[in-house]
Amino acid sequence: MQQAARAASPSPERPPNVLFIIIDDLRPLLGCYGAPAITPHMDELADSGTLFQRAYCQESLCHPSRTSVLTGCRPPTTRVFNLKTDFRQALPDIATLPQTFKAAGYATRALGKVHHGPGRLDDAASWSEPCWRPEKQFYHTEEGHALETELDKEAEARGVFRFRPGPAFEAPQIDDGETMDGQIATKAIEIMEGAGDQPFFLAVGFRKPHLPFVAPKRYWD
Predict the structure, then answer these.
(1) Looking at 115, 131, 140, 145, which residue is catalytic?
(2) Can 41 be counted among the known catalytic residues?
(3) CA 32, CA 43: separation in Å to the nearest integer?
(4) How far apart are CA 65 and CA 62, in angstroms?
(5) pTM
(6) Is residue 2 over pLDDT 50?
(7) Which CATH number covers residue 167?
(8) Would you call 57 a catalytic residue per the annotation?
(9) Three-class SS state of 23
(10) Which range of residues forms the domain containing residue 139?
(11) What total number of domains does the chain contain?
(12) I need a surface site. Which of 67, 116, 171, 198 has the fewest CB within 10 A?
């Protein structure tokens, strides 16, 4: 990470790089907010940066909230109130946050879950390249895989998306890098360490702590 930080450091000759991290379903139950959760890295970031004490979610669903973050507009303006509406329907000419950086000469990349959905709602005007995502893998045990396959088949037969829930949690014996978020973090470091002379805006979207609560067993012990 130190090497990645050096790669992301600004030089006098060019604008600073931007690392934008977006997390799914995270409440402010962090140590820096007085919660008992053990969150040393988040606490350090809060201590060295700006900690907002009155920040409000725009919607109870993630897609409307993500859209508001990226456009700077509230749901009544974006007309996004669900998980499937493209904000370009209501705001075809709006410049998003990454799009503004792109217009300023930045290479803009997105990894993981920045927009909602499996690519269907990615905004081509915002990014220099299509969003990179790891292969979908919510579960890692044989039981979890079997149930996930069963759920997908049932949903496909009904023409819907995952109509009933799978296991709420899992504690597989795996390394961090085998999880989807681990792969996203590895890809982000790879991009930062390999950055050239062009400044970058890198949006990294982690899926956790959204359900299901799947993490290597050592975190549960």
Answers:
(1) 115
(2) no
(3) 5
(4) 5
(5) 0.85
(6) no
(7) 3.40.720.10
(8) no
(9) strand
(10) 2-220
(11) 1
(12) 198
